[in-house]
Amino acid sequence: MKPHDVLQVRPDGLYCPAGDFYIDPSRPVDRALVTHGHGDHCAPGARSLLATPETVAIARTRYGEQAFENFQEAPVGQTIRIGDVEVRFVPAGHVLGSAQIVLETGGARVVVSGDYKRAADPTCAPFEPVECDLFVTEATFGLPVFRHPPLQGELDRLLASLAAFPQRAHVLGVYALGKAQRIMAELRARGYDRPVYLHGALLKLTQLYETLGVPLGPWKQVMEVEKAELRGQIVLAPPGAIQDRWARRLPDALPVGVSGWMQVRARARQRRVELPLIVSDHCDWDALCRTVTEVKAQTIWVTHGAEEALVHWCRQQGLEAAPLSIAGRGEED
């Protein structure tokens, strides 16, 4: 079987005819295999959800028990047969529970990456490259201009700002799943032992991470403390909240952007960010190219971002490459 025959691009998403399932469908389907728990990949409404145990727990926490008729767990590395397809979930390094989905049928191996990163992250298992015939890769930061600096340097800038402005609450705009918990864990690894203060929207998933064995250190809910206690402290909130009415209760709030997009100065200015930190849960350009080389696939499908640049690079390497142009992706935006 040719790799192109294993997967089809349909309006609902990537479809595997030999197994009669979709991967990360954008609409309700009978059977969904899901790479991770972000809403642009794990949409509620499918009859059956198959994902890693952590992603199943995240889906239950975010959407409730009624979001899917049937939850099924796929332990990482275990082969499951669905129809005529052998399926494995392999770590993607994006967020807790994130996985690439490996499909083998008719002598062909296809890997769907979902979102992934190659940088170390104490909150999730690292990305594992899998050699394959067809690799479906994201390209959120798929332009040569995107080269993410080491995380430790960005944390140095945050801690230096805290020392320089001890009366100001530093409010970091972070995604509720993954980014918030990664920042907390990385701060603890640096020896930061003060409480981190959380917007209410971050509580459930932070609690879930700790339940699933990810230590995050002391934290408090912003609404349960006096305003004066927040001076000189780190506050985590959804990106949309750092310029919202909610932030007005913070003492002289200093808005901090935490995203790979902070490399684009216009984005930081548009969001009125005073301290842009370039921290991403996706690959930068070099990591994308490195991964394509390591998996040794002769066919590359590119989606979720700046597709054409990576497609062009792949073709320069003698690979067959094409953009998928699946809309509605990119939670870091």
TrEMBL record:
What is a single Pfam family found in this protein's UniProt entry? Lactamase_B_2
Start and end residues of each Metallo-beta-lactamase domain: 27-140
Top-level taxon: Bacteria
Recorded GO terms, molecular function?
exonuclease activity; ligase activity; RNA endonuclease activity
Q: Does the keyword Cytoplasm apply?
A: no
Write out the entry's keywords from A to Z: Exonuclease, Hydrolase, Ligase, Nuclease
- Tell me if Nuclease is a UniProt keyword of this record: yes
Catalytic EC class? hydrolase
Q: What is its EC number?
A: 3.1.-.-
In terms of PANTHER family, this protein maps to: BLL1145 PROTEIN, CLEAVAGE AND POLYADENYLATION SPECIFICITY FACTOR FAMILY MEMBER
Name-wise, this protein is Ligase-associated DNA damage response exonuclease
Say which species the protein is native to. Pontivivens nitratireducens
